[in-house]
Predict the structure.
Amino acid sequence: MSFADDRPNILWIVSEDNGIKWVSCYGGTNAHTPAIDQLAKEGFRYTHCFDNAAVCAPTRSCWITGMYGISNGTQPMRSRNEIPHDKIRYYPDLLRKAGYHTSNPGKTDYNIGGREDKDCWDYKGGKGKSQYGWKFRKEGQPFFAVVNIGDSHESRAHSKVDTLEKDPAKMKLASYHPDLPAIRKNYAKYAAAVERMDGKVKDTIEALRKDGLYENTVIIHNSDHGGVMPRSKRFLYASGVHCPLIVRVPEKYKHLYPAEKPGDTVDRIVSFVDMPKTWLSLAGADIPDQFQGTIFLGKNAESAPEYHLSFRERADERLDHVRMIRDERFAYHKNYYPFAPAGQHLAYLWKAPATPEWEQHHREGKTDEITGRFFRPRVSEEFYDNDKDFDNVHNLIDTPGHQAKIAKLKAELRRRQLELFDSGLLPEKMRERRAAENNMTIYQMVRDKNLYPLAQYLDAADMALSRDSSNLEVLTKQMSHADEGMRWWAVVGLHLLETKAASASGVLDKALADDSHEVRMMAAWTLVKLGTSEAALECLDQMLFADKSPASNETMLHNLIDWMGEPGLPLVKKYIGQGGNRQGRYGIGIFGRIAELNGWSGESGR
C-alpha cells in the first residue's frame, strides 16, 4: 500500500458565519442546504460542536495553534499580538513534516504577529488561482486541503434588502428579535446567502469526485462560528457558538468511524480547539504538548470532554469581556464588564439593516423584557438551559434547583482559567504594557506568577462582580494596592456597588491621578454616577484632549464615555467640534455615532 493510501487525504470545508439554525439537517428551516444534508447522510453529524471565540480572527488563532486565544494573548479582534514561534508550531508545519501537501488558498486571518499567515502552507493560492489546493501536490502525496467559503459571511447580510430570493414571511425569527419587516427581510437575504454557500460545498465535493479522490479523502464541514443576525456572531450565546460539524469517512477508512455507521449522529462535545490536534492524529503526525484540545476522531480518539469553554473580548472598536463554560445542556456565562451592554453600537454589525431597525424599535420604547435586553447593561452572571432555551433568553442564575450545577460550572471555569493562564484578567492595554515593559510576549508574561498572579486576579474579579456591599471596606483598601491590576478590579467593584460606594468617594478622587489610565477613567465614571462629576469630567477631558501617549488607551476611553451616557455628551461634542475623527475601521466610530444620534454635524459640534 502506498503512502497516500495508508493515510487519508483530508479536505476541510469551512463556511463562514452560520450556526446550526441555518442548516437543514440540524433542523433549520430558513435555508435549505441539500449538499450539507447529503454529506451528513453519508457521514457523521456532530450535535454538540462549539466555537471557542464566536468571531473569526480569534477563532482562527485557536485553529492554527491548537491553543485557546486566551492562553496566547490573541483573543482581542485584530490584535495580532506576537507569540513565541520557537515554542508554538502551526499545525500545517507538522502536517508538512509528516509528508502531507498542505493548502489554504482562502482565508487565514490568524490574528498573530511575528509570522506571515500564509507562510505555513505549501499552496497559498492567489487572485484567480484554484481554490482546490490538492491539485498542486506531488503524485501520490497525501494532502490536507482547506477550502474556505465566504458566501455566507456576515457581509452578505449588509446593504439593502429590497430584492429578495426568499420569502420574508416564511422566516423563523429568534425570540429576541422583534417581528419587524426589515428584520424579516434581512433574514431572507441571509438565508439565500447560506443556500449559495451550500452550492459551493456541492461544487467542492464534485471537484473532489471528478479528480477521483472522493473515496480516499476524509471530508470535514463546519462553520467558523455562529451567526449572523444581530446577537449571534461575536456573542457567546448558543446562536454564536453552536456550529455544524459533519465528517464523512470513506468506507476504506471505516476503522476511523466515530459511530457505528454513516448517517449516525455523534453527541460528544467537540470544541474548535480540538480540531487541529485531531487532524494531526488522522495524519499520523507528531503532536507537541502545546495542543490544548482533545482528539475526537480516529483510532487515537480521546475521552470526550465534559465541558466546553468560550471567550469574548474586544471586537473591533468595542470592548467586552465574557467567559462561558457549558456541558451538553447547560451554560454558565460570566460577564466581567457587565456595565457594557451586549448591544453597544458596533459599526460592522450595524451595516445589516436588521440591527439599526431593532435598535430604533428599542429607542422608541417598543421592546419588551426579551427583545430589549440586548441593549441594556447586564448582570454579572447568566445561566441557561440550552435544551429548552436555545435562544438564551431565560436567565436561570437565581433558580434554586440549578445552584448545584451552577456551582460545578463555576468551579470548572476557574480551574480551566488557571490551567490555560487566562490572559484576560487584565484590561487589554494593561497586559500589553506589562508584557512590553518586561520584554516578553503576553504568552510568556502570564506564565510568570510574579508578573501575573492569576489566582489573585480571579478572586478580585469575583469580589468585584458580586456587587456585595459587605466588600466595600476591602475594595476601598485595595484601591491603594501596588498592582494596577488589583486596583482595576477594586474600582470595578466600587463602580458596580453604585450608591453603596458613596463613602469611598475620597479614595476615588485620589484615583483620578492613578498611574493606570484604566483605573483613572473608571474612577471618574464612578464619581459621575455618585453625583460628584466636576473633577471627574475634568480628568476625562485631560485624558481625551491632552494625553496622547500610547498608554492613553483611547479605545477604552471612547467606550467608557459612551457607556457613561448623557454626562459624557459635552466631552463628545467638544471632540467633534475640534474636528475629532468620526470614522472607525469599518464605518462610523463611537464618537461619530454619538454625534449622529445628537444631530451634531458641523465643526462646532452643533
User: Anything to note?
Assistant: Residues 421-564 form one domain. Residues 181-210 form the longest helix (30 residues).
